[in-house]
């Protein structure tokens, strides 16, 4: 005689287990979302402080926005790619934390925090697997793949932090700066001196957001 299959747990028990798993994640005290925000499935918004997300922002699958230690403000037209993490303290349990703490503060570091929380300015791009605990990132800046931006950093507008770079806590990066090869810096004179290129870059960015809205199912209803 064949063995009888094991009985399935009751619906009540399954619901109880699911509730326990969900309750592990802290809920933000408030989430302020513009109606045009796109939040993909499996993106996470957690914490105990407010999270504010502006118009036409795109959060790709498996992004993590954490307000556990301080508020997060994400400006208009920001794009956060897969597995990127935003928020003060969100990198504390990663291998990158040990890398960051072993590096002396770079030139231009600040002695004090600009303020609590993380603010991403308009049209910022945070690429896959980047960790951003910065106090502020200026308009049009790009944080590339696997970058770590430490707590309290202030990055100016139209900057590029190249792939795998690590910015120690409280570092200041002036407008139009490109950080590359770990800690090397240069000023992008072309985009600095030609406002029409800045406008063209933002126009292409806006078109890309429109494409994302057509391709990525929007799960924003979960958070409203």
Automatic annotation (TrEMBL):
Keywords: Cytoplasm, Cytoskeleton. InterPro entries: DCTN6, Hexapep, Trimer_LpxA-like_sf. One of its GO terms (biological process) is mitotic spindle organization. The keyword Cytoplasm applies. The keyword Cytoplasm applies. It comes from the Eukaryota. It is found in: Cytoplasm, Cytoskeleton. Residues 1-21 are annotated as: Disordered. SUPFAM superfamilies: Trimeric LpxA-like enzymes. GO terms for molecular function: dynein complex binding. One of its GO terms (cellular component) is dynactin complex. PANTHER family: DYNACTIN 6 (PTHR13072), DYNACTIN SUBUNIT 6 (PTHR13072:SF0). Part of the dynactin complex that activates the molecular motor dynein for ultra-processive transport along microtubules. Belongs to the dynactin subunits 5/6 family. Dynactin subunit 6 subfamily. This is Dynactin subunit 6.
